[in-house]
Write a structure and sequence with these properties.
Helices cover 26% and strands 28% of the residues. It is an alpha+beta fold. The longest helix has 20 residues.
């Protein structure tokens, strides 16, 4: 991290934030052994310039991850670049384009990653809704539209090759509409995982699904196939500031269930009140500086060398 010259108020805010991060219990990242992945909806990131102290706080949070999926990134990337300068030269980013119409809110999805821990392996594409052949012989898009196309990218960490697919599901329309979109997304993952020429079958699906709770039809829809929530995240009650709604999720279609280490959670930069960080702001303005969502994190085991060695040795028995 390269915070550089800091004002005293910003230094105090960073000290407070680091305590919140410490309480999250995120294990240290170890090259070729584990991977800290995450997803964070950063409220309208890029719509209006953040204050300098907010950029430092956002960078401090982002620096906890080896690869982080970012939703609600806007068309203007200047604030993201301000953060990257603080993170240093090892942090790279790959991001989607945005739709110009008002329905998409000019949003992008991005993957910020530390190239020392994870390698981008070349695939970066939007996921398009499936199409079916109509009675006129023309192929038509299956309803409902995702509004904002999910975005995927392929990575490698050690011997672990995986595809991350991130979505920001439309809020309006109610839970029933979200459930339809999430079922479509789950079906898309199942269809793609069965493809002969898939880059990798380890899918990590994450982002802001606007799921109110795991009892809702929206959650049942996204987990209707092979996608499952890692046990480490079952104890997470919510990812909004009050932790009452499970809007954000990390799900996995594993080729090895042992990929889950049992460690995961949220970073509580907000704890009952925002006044510890921004006593001069209203809650609404605080959300516009940091966010109205908490970052969700998960540790993944990337060390399989022992398993590969055992397979070779068993062939000799």
């Amino acid at each position: 991290m390269h915070h550089g010259s800091l004002s005293l108020p910003t230094a105090r805010k960073l000290q407070y934030l680091r305590q919140r991060i410490k309480e999250a219990g995120i294990p240290p990242s170890k090259l070729d052994e584990n991977l800290i992945i995450g997803t964070w909806n950063i409220r309208e990131f890029g719509k209006s310039p953040r204050r300098d102290d907010a950029i430092h706080l956002i960078a401090e949070i982002m620096g906890q991850f080896d690869v982080l999926a970012i939703t609600e990134l806007r068309d203007n990337l200047e604030d993201l670049e301000r953060v990257r300068k603080l993170l240093g030269p090892y942090y790279k980013v790959v991001f989607s384009d945005y739709r110009n119409d008002a329905a998409g809110f000019q949003e992008r999805i991005a993957y910020l990653y530390d190239k020392r821990a994870v390698e981008f392996t070349g695939l970066a594409a939007e996921a398009d809704p499936m199409r079916v052949k109509g009675i006129d012989g023309e192929y038509q898009q299956v309803s409902p539209d995702w509004w904002r196309s999910p975005y995927m990218a392929s990575f490698r960490a050690g011997n672990f090759d995986f595809v991350m697919l991130t979505a920001h599901i439309r809020w309006s329309g109610g839970v029933r509409a979200r459930a339809k979109a999430l079922k479509q997304l789950a079906d898309w993952v199942e269809e793609r995982r069965s493809s002969e020429f898939l880059v990798d079958r380890d899918f990590i699906v994450l982002g802001d699904f606007n799921i109110p709770s795991r009892r809702s039809s929206a959650y049942k829809a996204i987990t209707s196939g092979s996608l499952q929530i890692p046990p480490a995240l079952l104890s997470v009650q919510g990812t909004n500031l009050t932790e009452k709604a499970t809007y954000d999720q990390i799900l996995h279609s594993p080729t090895r269930y042992e990929r889950f280490t049992g460690k995961g959670g949220v970073i509580r930069f907000y704890k009952e009140s925002h006044k510890e960080l921004y006593p001069d702001l209203s809650l609404g303005k605080f959300k516009n500086q940091l966010s109205d969502h908490l970052p969700l994190w998960l540790e993944v085991d990337t060390w399989i060398d022992d398993e590969l060695l055992e397979k070779v040795l068993l062939q000799d028995e």
